[in-house]
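In full, the data.
>
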Amino acid sequence: MTDLFEAETATTTTLDMRRLQRNKRRATRRKWTLVVSAVGIVVLALGASVAWNFVGTFQTSEDVVADYEGTGQGTLQVIVNSGDTGSDIATTLHDSGVIASRAAFLQEWNSNPDSESIVPGYYLMHREMKAEFALQALLDPNNRELRTITVPEGASLATFRDRIASITGASTDQVDAAMKDTDALGLPAEAKGNLEGWLFPSTYEFNPGVTPNEVLTKMVATTVAMLDKYDVAPKDREKILTVASLVEKEAKLDEDRPKIASVIYNRLDQEMPLGFDSTLKYVLPDAGTILTKSELATDSPYNTHINAGLPPGPIASPGEESISAAVSPADTNYLFFVTVNLDTGETKYAKDFPTHQKYVKELNAWLKENG
C-alpha cells in the first residue's frame, strides 16, 4: 500500500511541475511579445515623427520664398533685352546675384501692374537686393544707363560728326568713315550719297557701346519717318529737305518759316536767284555776318546770288517746323525778306524791290547802332 501511494504522489508532483514550467514558458513568451511590440511601437513612432518632420520641412521650403533684405550693396550692370518676360528678367537678376530667388521677384512682378512697362536697356543695380526693391529699380528711368546726344536744328555734318564721336568714343576719322558708307546707313537713293540734311536734329538716347553706324542709321531713319509723316513722295524728298534747310538757316522765329518758304517758291517760279547769304556761308564757313563783295562773287553752285534755282542739296539739317513750312508754305506774293533786328529776329517782307530796300536800310541802321 505504501508503494502504491508513493507512486501516485510522485506522478502528481511531476504533472504539477510540468504545468508550472509550461506556464513559465508562456509567461516568458508573453513578456517578449510585449517587449517586441513596445519596441515596434517606439520605432514606428520615431519613423512617423521623422517622416512628419521631413514633410513639414518640405512644405516650409515651398511656402517661404528666399529673399534678401534691404537695397543691396555694390553696383553692377543688368541688361533687359527687348521682348524679355518677367520670367526672363527674374532669371537674369538671379544669375547676376541681384535677387535671392526667381520666385520672390515673380511674386512682386505679378502683384505690380506697372511691371509690363519696364523698358529694355542697361540698368545699374545692386547685389543682394530685396525683390521688391529690384523691381522698383527697373521701373525707375533714372537707373537706366544711357548715352544721350542732342543736335540742334540747322546743324551741319561737322557738328554731327563731333557729337557722334563724343557719345560713341570713336575718333572723328572713324565717324567720317561711317558717314561715307551711306548704303550701310540706309540713305535713300534720292540723296545721291550726300548725308547733308538727312540726319535729323533731335535728342537721342542709346545704350552703352553704341557705334557711329548705329547712331547715323537712327538719324537717317528719323528723317525718312519725318518726311513720310508729311507725305513727301520719295522723288520730292531731296527738294523738300533743301528748301527746308534754307528756311532753317534763314528764319529766326517759327512764325516766319512758312513765309520764308513762300519767298523761296515764288522766286523759283519766276526763275529769280534766291540771293541767300546762307548758301554761300555753307561753302565759306569763316565768312562774317555780312558778306564782302569778293565773297558775294564766289564761283560756286551754292552761290544763290549769281545762280538761279536751288543749291545742289541741303545746307544743314532742318527740324520739323522747317520741313512743315517747306511742305506747306504760306500763300503770299512776297519776293523779298530781311531780318531787321538780329537780336529779336524781327523779319519784314516785301513784294517789290523798293519796299525791300527800305527794310534793308532798317537793318543797316540796326547794325550801325549795335556795332
Q: What stands out?
A: Confidence is low (pLDDT under 50) at residues 1-13, 55-62.
